[in-house]
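SAMPLE LOG
Freezer: B-3
Tube label: C17
Construct: single chain, 269 aa
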Amino acid sequence: MSRIPTRAWVGFLLLGGLGALSLLMGRLFPEVLASSCPLGSDLTRPDRTVCELAFGGLWISLAIGLAAGGLSTGLGLAVAAVARLSGGVLERWVMRLADAFFALPDVLVVMVLQLAGQSLVDAGGGAGLGPFGLMVVSLALVGWAGPARMFRNRLSTLEGQEFVAASRALGATRFHVLRVHLWPALLPFVLAVFLSRLPAAILAESTVSFFGIARMEPMSLGRYLGTSYAALIYEGGTRIVIPAWALLMLLVLGASLSSQALGTSVRKG
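STRUCTURE (predicted):
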């Protein structure tokens, strides 16, 4: 892989800065924001400041994005590896299944999964999943198909290189080729795909939570915006909505910049 582009570094710094801020302000020292927030208290929750709610939501949104992005990337990688190791008819059917899942509307399916999961939880089921776990699983179930298709195509391209053909000619098995020759070359691509899942997962969760379908507690940025947008009709209501909206946009921008730049670098390398 060629050197990491400047645009990717900007994205990494943005993500890292937001992650550090959310950890420090949202989890470790929330009392600082409670006592010194320049934006004052939330109109609908007078016992909490706008800064507490916004940075607390940033932490939850980032954690959901990282967990769901990692899980969907892992699922996609496992499916692609099984498909390539199997080959033939099984590979074609697995990829057709992935294409069928990829064609589904992500947000709509997540909404259905959330409602079904919450019904199970209310009925005493749900396998112990809370709102956070339920959201991560829902996002991963709709997000694995794209990575699976990308990983399968990347593996197919890498397998066409001469050193892979030489290894096979010497008697190497498919699993040996995957583990020894393909995996090291695939790692940068795995990171790029993982980063590309971040903004998709964060936006899907925010949309579902904004419409009040997900029961995220503590609140994510999407749920905070969904429960606070009515404040815009009051004087000074923008001070409540704008910070959470800006943090959400910066989070998505950081993930998008790093994934696009890193993905371009990997393809050129």
